[in-house]
């Protein structure tokens, strides 16, 4: 029988990675075994990191909770229907911003070849998203990548730097995540698969880079555990306790219980 595709797992506490294991091969049809030092594409787990970076800006006095999108993105022409919408609403997927009208095939194709700097691409996306009224139910949970692309654009507007640079400065460096990067990891790393076929990271193995704040981070299992441990309270010098709790507190309302990039188990 062919070797199974790679799977890694770990047990994390606020003290760090207590146990980790990995099995399988880096890509289907290969005999290269995955290792604990490999870098893994984290997909939508990036959202919790983007929200945490915004939390760092709050701690530094460069932003605040419940900041209106109209204040965070002052250079955009925003439809009046978004006047009461905050960045918290985006982080909790309760802004009424749906992927369907925005992340269509035409946008994806254009985004792969867009030569503009990424902050300009995200600002243009936010302008298009906020030029029309919400297409979904405001205040109700509706998961969508568009929320975090707009949040990334707001982070860029607030800092004057690309989201990637802010992530490196506010998250990767202070937590010592030396393996962290963006996009499908190159070199010795597990590949993604489509229809059971391994996809070469040198090609179209990930979403467009403009979607970064919603899901393009990668890193080793040990580094990801450092981030999780910090969010559990193991990195007291990285986020204030008030900010950490804010990021992990779900919005009031109908389930599912979702905070800023985290699904919250109310029974835990």
What does this structure look like?
The chain is of the alpha+beta class and 268 residues long. It is globular, with a radius of gyration of 19 Å. Helix 1 (46-59) packs across helix 7 (163-175). The model has no long low-confidence stretch (mean pLDDT 94). The protein is 36% helix and 11% strand. Strand 5 and strand 6 (197-199) form a beta hairpin. The longest helix is centred in the middle third of the chain and has 15 residues, at 145-159.
In terms of per-residue confidence, which ranges show pLDDT below 50 for 5 or more consecutive residues? Answer: none
Using the CA coordinates, give the radius of gyration. Answer: 19 Å
Mean pLDDT figure? 94
How is the largest sheet built, in terms of strand order? 3-7-4
Topology, number of strands: 7
Question: Helicity level, as a percent range?
Answer: 25-40%
Encode the helix/strand succession as letters.
EEEHHHHHHHEEEHEHH
> What proportion of the residues form beta strands (DSSP E)?
5-15%
Count of DSSP-assigned helices:
10
Instruction: Tell me the structural class.
Output: alpha+beta
Q: Report the span from N to C terminus.
A: 39 Å
Based on CA inertia axes, which overall geometry fits?
globular
Largest beta-sheet characterization: 3 strands, antiparallel
């Amino acid at each position: 029988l062919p070797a199974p595709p790679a799977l890694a797992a770990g047990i994390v506490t606020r003290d760090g990675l207590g146990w980790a294991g990995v099995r399988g091969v880096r890509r289907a049809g290969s005999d290269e075994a995955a290792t604990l030092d490999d870098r893994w594409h984290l997909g939508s787990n990036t959202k919790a990191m983007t929200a945490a970076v915004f939390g760092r800006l709050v701690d530094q006095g460069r932003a605040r909770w419940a900041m209106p999108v109209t204040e965070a993105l002052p250079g955009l022409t925003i439809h009046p229907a978004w006047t009461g919408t905050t960045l918290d609403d985006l982080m909790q997927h309760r802004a009424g911003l749906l992927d369907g009208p925005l992340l269509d095939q035409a946008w994806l194709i254009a985004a792969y070849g867009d030569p503009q700097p990424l902050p300009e691409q995200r600002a243009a996306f936010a302008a298009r998203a906020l030029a029309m009224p919400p297409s979904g139910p405001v205040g109700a949970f509706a998961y969508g990548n568009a929320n975090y692309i707009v949040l990334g654009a707001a982070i860029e507007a607030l800092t004057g730097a690309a989201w990637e640079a802010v992530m490196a400065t506010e998250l990767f460096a202070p937590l010592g995540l030396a393996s962290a990067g963006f996009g499908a990891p190159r070199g010795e790393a597990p590949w993604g698969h489509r229809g059971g076929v391994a996809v070469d990271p040198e090609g179209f193995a990930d979403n467009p880079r403009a979607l970064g704040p919603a899901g393009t981070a990668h890193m080793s299992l040990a580094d990801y555990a450092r981030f999780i441990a910090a969010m559990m309270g193991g990195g007291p010098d990285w986020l204030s306790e008030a900010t950490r709790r804010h990021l992990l507190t779900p919005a009031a309302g109908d389930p599912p219980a979702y905070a800023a990039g985290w699904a919250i188990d109310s029974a835990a």
